[in-house]
Amino acid sequence: ELLRFRQYRDAKGKQAAEASFNFVEVPYLFRPAGRDLTEEEDLVLAEAIAVSWRGWLGQLYPGRQFNLEVLPPPKTGSVVGIQVWERASGPE
Fold first, then answer.
1. What is the pLDDT of residues 27-85, one digit of tens each?
2. Element spanning 81, H or E
3. CA distance 54 to 66
4. Which residues, including other chains, have CB under 8 Å from residue 88's CB and lie 6 or more apart?
5. Nearest Cα to 82, choosing from 55, 56, 50?
């Protein structure tokens, strides 16, 4: 995984690599075979997770800033997702 990350980072840049590798498909987080949530419910769950992650990242890394984005199916090409990456503090 580390080699793949480095190759992707070198080709696309650090932020793009982080966003790609830190992508989570929300519907598959909890027992995917028995899930019965609608897309709208997945979006609500994703927003709740995003709020939690923003707070947690802020506590763990108070001097750093992160982008955390909830992505609807049209943006992911499949299901609701969450993507996170650190904001650049200088040249990439």
1. 888 766 666 788 999 999 999 999 999 999 999 999 999 999 999 999 999 999 999 98
2. strand 81-86
3. 8
4. 14, 15
5. 50
**26 vs 68: CA distance, rounded Å:** 14
Are residues 82 and 71 in contact, defined by beta-carbon separation less than 8 angstroms?
yes
In the chain, the largest separation of any two C-alpha atoms, in whole Å, equals 45
How many Å apart are CA 45 and CA 80, to the nearest integer?
10
Residues 42 and 79: their CA atoms lie apart, in Å, by 9
Task: Note the pTM of the prediction, 2 decimals.
Answer: 0.76
Angle at 58 between CA 54 and CA 63, to 5 degrees: 140
